[in-house]
Each structure stands twice: as C-alpha cells, then as structure tokens.
C-alpha cells in the first residue's frame, strides 16, 4: 500500500489552522485515513521528515547528481550481468546513449 497524507486547511477570520490526516491508498486507489498505532507511526514519520535540513539549490543539485551517478553505476553493473536477456536493438540504443553522454552529445 502507498502511504500519503491529507492536509486539511481551516480558514477563519484572521486565522489559518491545519490538520494533518495520514492515510494509505487502498486497492481502489482511494485514501483511507489511518487510525490507532498506524496513525501514530505515520505522524512520527512525517515529523522526522519535517526535521530534515533544508537544502540550498547547490546542495540539492549535488545530491541529485550523486544519486544519478550511483544509479547509473548500479544500472551498468546490472546490465553487464544480464546483457544476454535484452534484445539486440535495445542494447544498441543503451550503448549509443551511454556514448552520447560520455561525449556530451545531445
């Protein structure tokens, strides 16, 4: 199941308040509010995520770049082990894209 939340905004005269409603998405793709221990765990997770430091634009770009590099390394490793499972046409496209990236050709 997917976990999500609903943010309920309450607008009043000169005041704004809110309520966080943790939910999970059921098999019919509908949000179902959590209750009891599940709700408590979800709220704790939201609180932990909210305490993450706010990244500057440069820090974010660096994080994304490093994540992409790590993903590509894992992908190359996977491809090297499983190349024989791919149709030759797909392998040619993958190799051409790799070369274009290396040569910075668009």
Provide a descriptive summary of the structure in words.
The protein has two domains: 2-50, no CATH class; 57-103. The chain has helices at 36-50, 57-82, 88-103, and strands spanning 2-12, 15-25, 31-33. Helices cover 54% and strands 24% of the residues. The model has no long low-confidence stretch (mean pLDDT 90). The protein is α+β, with helices and mostly antiparallel strands. It has a three-stranded antiparallel β-sheet with strand order 1-2-3, covered by helices on one side.
Comma- or semicolon-separated keywords:
54% helix, 106 residues, three-stranded antiparallel β-sheet, single chain, 2 domains, alpha+beta
Q: What order do the helices and strands come in, and which of them pair?
A:
Elements: E1 2-12, E2 15-25, E3 31-33, H1 36-50, H2 57-82, H3 88-103
Antiparallel strand pairs: 1-2, 2-3
Q: Give me the side-by-side strand order of the main sheet.
A: 1-2-3
Number of domains: 2
| Percentage of β-strand residues | 15-25%
The pLDDT mean sits at 90
Identify low-pLDDT runs.
none
Relative helix content: 40-55%
Molecular shape: elongated
Largest beta sheet, briefly?
A: 3 strands, antiparallel
Distance between the termini: 39 Å
Number of strands: 3
How would you spell out the order of helices and strands? EEEHHH
The helix tally amounts to 3
Radius of gyration: 22 Å
Return the structural class: alpha+beta
